[in-house]
Amino acid sequence: MDKKQKNYTNLSIAGVLFLMTGYVLDKIIKIDNTTIALACYMLSIICLLISILKMNKLKKEEKEAEAKKNDKKSNNKKQKK
Questions:
Q1: In this structure, are residues 15 and 44 in contact, taking their beta carbons and an 8 Å threshold?
Q2: Which of 2, 8, 61, 78 is the most buried (most CB within 10 A)?
Q3: What is the pTM of this model?
Q4: Sign of dihedral through CA atoms 18, 22, 28, 32?
Q5: Distances (CA, A) of 22 to 44, 46, 64, 79
Q6: What is the DSSP track for the chain?
Q7: 19 near 43, Cβ under 8 Å?
Q8: pLDDT means per 10 residues in the chain (81 residues)?
Q9: Using an 8 Å Cβ cutoff, are 37 and 20 in contact?
């Protein structure tokens, strides 16, 4: 696992933790000020969306790099023939 992928995985974990924190504050502890719980929910959504989008972008870049590498190999084989 490279450094970028690890960062996005950590961001996903942070999103889940914010979601769990918001749930605990809202449903279990039942605090009067729901703004804190809503802020936790919003932070979890933001973290999870960013991590999903960045991971998809990283996978797309890896596929493009693989395709370029395969194209170079096929071009080299054509030139040798």
A1: yes
A2: 8
A3: 0.71
A4: positive
A5: 9, 14, 39, 61
A6: --HHHHHHHHHHHHHHHHHHHHHIIIIIS--S-HHHHHHHHHHHHHHHHHHHHHHHHHHHHHHHHHHHHHHHHHHHHHHH-
A7: no
A8: 78 89 85 84 91 89 88 73 57
A9: no
